[in-house]
């Protein structure tokens, strides 16, 4: 409301109008890194009150961070928002926003290098890459919702990226409006019950043998599930719908042996099942 109108109002009305203006204004974000450092040095548990907290942050030791669905970690538009460089860390119930824009530097909502971490029930919006596991084993990524930025799928980042990361469980997540789900040089991973939609490649596996991909839904992507040079692979009870790009296959296997492909539903795809130099 203009200042002149506030001056003309009676005192009681002015107080109400001023209070409304303050409540409608943006809340001040609290830096999150000092709270993390304090929790690491004391209880090892950080339960965040509802509100917005300033990122980016780095976690270098075992810690539980619980946002209870009401805490927002806002990056500054540069780099990765939450970087986990430790094992036995839990990130739960956070909304994470505002990564940088570099594909080369893998600017992410959550970046992990460690083991036995749990990334659970977080929401990642306005980030380039979503969740990245880099040389990280025995982690669990459960019930997260990830959305990248950018209209052209090639300009987005991967919703999930595993690189030299083994024996991880990726379960019950939703990835939409991302580039790909990419798993490279990563063995024995379980990818179960996820949804991938409105993206480029739903799932792309390269040199990632003995993994289980089961009960996932991929819909309205350029192509479905691509498996290259990955042996002993199990693809079971997945649904791939509307992969209608000119090169869009429901399931594509290339130079892959010993794969078990059973009970999958492939509907309205440019090609249903394609196997090249695979057995």
State the end-to-end distance: 71 Å
Q: What's the pLDDT, averaged over the residues?
A: 90
Q: Return residue spans where pLDDT drops below 50 for at least 5 consecutive residues.
A: 1-26
Tally of helical runs = 3
Q: Give the C-alpha Rg.
A: 22 Å
Describe the sheet with the most strands. Answer: 19 strands, parallel
Number of strands: 29
Mind telling me the CATH class of the largest domain?
Answer: Mainly Beta
Overall structural class, as computed from helix and strand content, comes to mainly beta
Structure report:
By secondary structure, the chain is mainly beta. It folds into 3 domains: 1-29, no CATH class; 32-193, 3 Solenoid (Pectate Lyase C-like); 200-279, no CATH class. Helices cover 10% and strands 45% of the residues. The strands form 2 sheets. The chain has a 19-stranded parallel β-sheet that branches. A 10-stranded parallel β-sheet has the order 4-6-8-11-14-17-20-23-26-29. The longest helix has 14 residues, at 11-24.
Comma- or semicolon-separated keywords:
globular; 3 helices; Pectate Lyase C-like; 29 strands; mainly beta; 279 residues; 3 domains
């Amino acid at each position: 409301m203009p200042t002149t109108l506030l001056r003309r109002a009676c005192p009681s009305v002015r107080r109400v109008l001023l209070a409304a203006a303050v409540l409608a204004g943006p809340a001040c974000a609290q830096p999150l890194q000092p709270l993390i450092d304090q929790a690491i040095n004391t209880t090892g548990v950080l339960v965040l009150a509802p509100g917005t907290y300033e990122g980016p942050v780095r976690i270098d030791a075992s810690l539980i961070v619980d946002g209870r669905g009401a805490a927002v970690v806002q990056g500054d538009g540069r780099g990765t928002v939450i970087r986990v460089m430790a094992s036995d860390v839990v990130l739960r119930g956070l909304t994470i926003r505002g990564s940088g824009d570099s594909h080369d530097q893998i600017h992410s909502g959550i970046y992990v290098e460690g083991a036995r971490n749990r990334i659970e029930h977080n929401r990642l919006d306005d980030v380039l890459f979503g969740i990245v596991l880099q040389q990280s084993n025995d982690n669990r990524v459960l019930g997260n919702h990830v959305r990248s930025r950018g209209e052209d799928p090639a300009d987005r980042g991967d919703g999930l990226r595993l690189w030299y990361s083994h024996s991880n469980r990726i379960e019950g997540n939703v990835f939409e409006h991302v580039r790909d789900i990419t798993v490279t040089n990563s063995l024995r991973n379980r990818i179960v019950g996820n949804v991938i939609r409105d993206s480029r490649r739903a799932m792309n596996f390269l040199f990632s043998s003995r993994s289980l991909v089961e009960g996932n839904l991929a819909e309205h992507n350029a192509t479905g599930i691509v498996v290259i040079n990955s042996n002993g692979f199990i693809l079971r009870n997945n649904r791939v719908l509307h992969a209608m790009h000119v090169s869009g296959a429901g399931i594509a296997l290339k130079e892959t042996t010993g794969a078990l492909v059973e009970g999958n539903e492939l509907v309205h795809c440019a090609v249903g099942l394609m196997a090249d130099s695979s057995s």
